[in-house]
Automatic annotation (TrEMBL):
Function summary: Essential for recycling GMP and indirectly, cGMP.
Nucleotide-binding found in the keyword field: yes
Reactions accelerated catalytically: GMP + ATP = GDP + ADP
Protein's name according to its UniProt entry: Guanylate kinase
Family membership: Belongs to the guanylate kinase family.
Record gene name: gmk
Key word Kinase present: yes
């Protein structure tokens, strides 16, 4: 008798800063509260309103280096001049327990997770409808200084150039439409053969009830 539990899914959502991935990810988490969210570690300073352990675990550069040396990250990268990393233990336990995890990480992180977990990772890239609208959103959000906004716009194009490493591209023009697309990607991924194969095997083996 096989009792292979379906492994969790690692849903990575990336975008240039300001394209709307936080807004879209929050919607998905509201609708599907069972999806875990990977709270990253970062050396960036908290923005007003951010709480340690909620948006990020805010750590010093030295602490981050220690964690990297101790192999505590599933992936890490420098983004906009700061270090960001995903806790490795969170990923391995979620996969083993069959829990899905949502990641708001950049293309470097998505690439590293894909390399380590090719079967479980789904990569989604959120595109702004235009660079002008991207700038408008960054200004309207009002969380960053003019200097930081200018820097983010400068790197937006080079981030966009990585679109071809992603499985799905969603243009966030109208929020409802973009959310429907993200939701559809997640729900479809839950039904991938690799994830549901265990169910088919149980049925073939004649087992009436699944053990999970
Ligand atoms: P990111 O996490 O990609 O940096 P945010 O989710 O913080 O982006 O969104 C940036 C700003 O744009 C926020 O003020 C958000 O409310 C707004 N926003 C998000 N999606 C849309 C949309 N479809 N239309 C207009 N404004 C949006
Ligand atoms: P912000 O500072 O605006 O919250 O995030 C800046 C960028 O860092 C975003 O593109 C975000 O997706 C990315 N990021 C956040 N956490 C991680 C992480 O753990 N790993 C990687 N590679 N990127 C991250």
């Amino acid at each position: 008798m096989s009792s292979e539990r379906p492994r969790g899914l690692l849903l990575v959502v990336s975008s240039p800063s300001g394209a709307g991935k936080t807004t879209l990810c929050n919607r998905l988490r509201q609708e599907f509260p069972s999806i875990g969210f990977s709270v990253s570690y970062t050396t960036r300073e908290p923005r007003p309103g951010e709480t340690d352990g909620v948006e990020y675990h805010f750590v010093s550069g030295e602490r981050f280096q220690e964690m990297a040396a101790d192999d505590e990250f599933a992936e890490y990268a420098m983004v906009h001049g700061n270090m960001y990393g995903t806790a490795g233990r969170l990923v391995s336990t979620a996969l083993a327990d069959g829990r899905d995890i949502l990641f708001d990480i950049d293309f470097q992180g998505g690439r590293q997770l894909r390399r380590s977990f090719p079967e479980e990772v789904v990569l989604v890239f959120i595109l702004p409808p235009s660079l002008r609208e991207l700038e408008r959103r960054l200004r309207r959000r009002a969380t960053d200084s003019d200097e930081v906004i200018a820097q983010r716009l400068k790197v937006a194009r080079s981030e966009l150039a990585h679109y071809d490493e992603y499985d799905f591209l969603i243009v966030n023009d109208e929020l409802e439409r973009a959310y429907d697309a993200l939701r559809a990607v997640y729900v479809s991924a839950l039904h991938r053969r690799s994830r549901q194969a265990a169910v088919a095997k149980q049925l073939i083996e004649g087992q009436e009830e699944l053990p999970w």
